[in-house]
Design a protein that fits this description.
rod-shaped; mainly alpha
């Protein structure tokens, strides 16, 4: 009875076949296939030909979803392509926003985004840009390694390509502190034991004086420069005292003594800045026999039982002096 009825409804069967074909096409749609977009177009064309029978396609919503995936992906591709014309001030933000959107996108739509690799490339470059921006933002003059961090930020910035460099929105903050950081580093490196101490200190002073007032305030170790200059000043006064001993005049021995006393009062670091100390020690060594004779003569006591022998000893010591030494003694 059923078979007969089916045969009698043969014409209805012919109408249902196209509906079934469309349903099969829709059920086979797979976003992972390279032909997915073409398959959707074909299914959509077949669906539209059904006319009034479209309502019989029970999985028509899946076709609508497929079209939605394609439209979403296409719109997203257009936005990625538009990044090429994005201004440097907003590029980093836009890339970050698109990246988040892409990650939150329906997996089926994700598979259809043709410019995903381009976005990934932008994201990679974006990370480098963000890193430089963060390095610049983190710069703090009070940190001990401030100069190093400024140099690191400059190095990271220089490693970017020209397009990416334009996207470092706080670059002006880096250039604004490089001279300050360089001077802070120079002052921190001042060491009395360095052969270039005096020149480095002089350069530091010149650089500081050339800075505008607001930048001078940013030199957090300025006191160290002043301290170095003070030490150099004290040391220089001793250098000048030693220079006065170049001429062996009537005050020669007194001048040597003054230079020695002043030198001995210096701190260990200050003594390292006395560049002509060898001249003092050499001249002191040369007059040591003279000082010995002077002491022997000063200690002579006519009432002493050994007066005669001491006079003879002093005479012998004096006779051993050279002509120049005898002149100094006089």
């Amino acid at each position: 009875m059923i078979i007969k009825k089916t045969v009698l409804n043969y014409k209805e069967l012919n109408k249902i076949v196209p509906v079934i074909d469309v349903m099969v096409q829709i059920s086979k749609l797979n976003p992972s296939k390279k032909t997915y977009k073409d398959d959707v177009v074909k299914a959509d064309e077949a669906f539209n030909k059904l006319g009034e029978l479209q309502k019989e396609v029970v999985n028509s919503e899946d076709l609508q979803k497929a079209q939605g995936y394609i439209n979403t992906a296409k719109a997203f591709d257009d936005r990625i392509i538009a990044l090429a014309n994005e201004g440097p001030d907003t590029f980093v933000k836009k890339v970050a926003e698109l990246t988040l959107e892409y990650k939150a996108m329906d997996k089926n739509a994700q598979k259809l985004v043709e410019q995903a690799k381009m976005l990934s490339s932008y994201e990679k470059d974006n990370k480098a840009v963000i890193k430089v921006i963060q390095m610049i933002d983190a710069l703090n003059p009070t940190n001990k390694d401030y100069t190093k961090k400024v140099l690191d930020a400059r190095k990271a910035y220089n490693a970017l390509d020209q397009v990416s460099q334009k996207r470092v929105t706080n670059y002006a903050n880096l250039t604004a502190v490089e001279d300050v950081a360089s001077l802070i580093g120079l002052i921190a490196s001042l060491k009395p034991t360095s052969k270039t101490f005096y020149q480095d200190m002089k350069t530091a002073r010149e650089l500081y004086d050339a800075l505008p007032a607001e930048k001078q305030q940013a030199i957090v170790n300025y006191d160290a420069l002043v301290a170095a200059e003070n030490e150099q000043g004290l040391a220089q006064s001793v250098v000048e005292l030693i220079n006065l001993t170049e001429v062996q005049d009537t005050d020669y021995l007194t001048k040597l003594m003054n230079a020695r006393v002043a030198y001995d009062k210096l701190s260990s670091d200050q003594k390292k800045l006395v560049t002509n100390i060898k001249d003092l020690t050499t001249r002191e060594k040369a007059v040591k026999p003279i000082l010995s004779v002077m002491v022997q003569i000063n200690e002579l006591d006519p009432e002493s039982p050994s007066f005669v022998s001491k006079v003879n000893s002093a005479r012998k010591a004096y006779d051993k002096l050279s002509k120049d030494q005898k002149k100094i003694h006089r």
